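Reposting from the mailing list since nobody answered there.

I have sequence plus structure tokens for a pair of proteins and want to know whether others read the tokens the same way I do. The first protein:
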Amino acid sequence: MQWSTSPHRPPHLYTEAAWYFITVSTVDKARILATDEHLNLWTNTFKELVIEYKLRLAAWVALQNHVHFLGLPKHGREIGNFMKRLNGRTAHELNTLDSARGRAVWYSYWDTCIRGERDYWTRFNYIHYNPVKHGYVDKPENWEFSSYRHYLRIDGSLWLANCYEGFPVDKLFDDDEF
């Protein structure tokens, strides 16, 4: 187990063989990922880095001012490096796209080690239903920028419905103010 701290971000606990629920927020919750082009840029960079870092990915979603993902790093301490590369590269590319050189894009990230099966599946569902919660769409399959459609193709709507029924989100993260 290894702690990483900085006065500008929350402390991070890196541990081996642990799934992590990660939330990344834009500075001042600005809607920087405002268009499909912005969201595709983030998504493509994210997927490239997932492969490069050999991150085992369970679920992800990108919204206009924050993203969530559930992943298992090859080594726990790699989460910090992964996030530094993801946030640095996407900030640079988004600023280039928007002609906003030097703009602060990402506030920081928060990580939580998953503590069991219920925690895992509830967060899995939370990620996929986040676009519904925030009013982007009325059903998760209508949001292009998440892993939900992957599971819909591979496992089907019945599997997803059973997953949600068995591990509903309910009031998880009522304090999510995005």
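The second protein, same order (residues first, tokens after):
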Amino acid sequence: AYLDAVARYFPQGTRVTRPDGGYFLWIELPEGSDALAVQRRAAQQGISIAPGPMFSANRGYAHCLRLNYGHALDARVDAALQVLGALSSAR
């Protein structure tokens, strides 16, 4: 369900992992996207994500996000994913 939501709500050109296990998705936004800016705007909306540069000593993965999908995708989560997709589209 989360993969479908990312496909619907995130900007064209977004790629996402299809993990065999665990509860995180690695989302690769189109080149030029700023994951740190998306994270700041998402936090202002009460949405928690991990920007890619958190996982790199040299601030790599600047256009990537890690998203926890351990919660059921209910109406509240779906609405948050819609907002996150819109925030990811803004530059």
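Reply #1 (J.P.):
I read it the same way you do. The radius of gyration is 12 Å.
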